[in-house]
Specification:
Four Helix Bundle (Hemerythrin (Met), subunit A); mainly alpha
């Protein structure tokens, strides 16, 4: 059980990604919750909080699966393959779902993030047969954390009607929205920067072949 727990956490992250994605799609289609306003709000709130806390739990597993695998010395090939896939699927699922819900505020920076992620993955696939590996940089590790924090902030903002915030905080809504979008763009810039780093590293490695 001890050796399997890191991979179980990774699998949980993949499962929660599906819950988050489908929940966000449902929230973008409020008529799915029925015509009764009370029922619709209740079902909407339940769906939103399932998505919000599901995303947070999934994000936390991103830290613990790798940390436990290293601490217990149970690093496996399965975990090494699934972990980065689960990270990218979680981020991609949240971006697509939020873009459908929040519009261009997420769609534009989110699209740039996805472009970088797919590009680097494709680059690795092309370089692998040549025996060239692109080591994960420290900044690349932190960019995933920044992406998850930024997406959590956006999730909070889009669900503000369900939080029943006190009137004293209503005046801060614009600042919260601006801050959340700012975090997304910061995550986007860091993501693109790390993509450029990988691109330069790949070009350098190819010249040395």
């Amino acid at each position: 059980m001890k050796s399997a727990l890191p991979n179980i956490l990774t699998g949980l992250r993949l499962a929660l990604t599906l819950v988050v994605f489908l929940g966000l799609i449902a929230l973008s289609q409020p008529h799915w919750f029925g015509d009764d306003p009370v029922q619709a709000r209740l079902l909407g709130a339940l769906t939103y909080f399932l998505v919000f806390w599901g995303f947070i739990v999934a994000a936390v597993t991103d830290f613990f699966d790798g940390w436990l695998a290293r601490r217990w010395n149970v690093v496996s090939m399965t975990g090494a393959i699934l972990d980065p896939i689960a990270d990218k699927v979680l981020v991609a699922g949240a971006i697509v779902g939020l873009a459908n819900l929040a519009g261009w505020a997420v769609a534009l920076p989110g699209g740039l993030i996805l472009f970088r992620e797919f590009s680097v993955s494709a680059m690795r696939e092309v370089l692998a047969p040549k025996g060239i590996k692109l080591p994960v940089t420290v900044l690349a590790k932190w960019k995933t954390t920044l992406q998850l924090v930024a997406l959590t902030a956006i999730l909070f903002v889009v669900g503000m009607p369900f939080w029943n915030l006190p009137d004293s905080m209503l005046g801060s809504v614009l600042y919260l929205q601006t801050g959340a979008v700012g975090l997304v763009w910061l995550a986007t810039l860091v993501t693109l920067w790390t993509g450029a780093e990988y691109g330069f590293a790949a070009a350098k490695a190819l010249k040395a072949v």
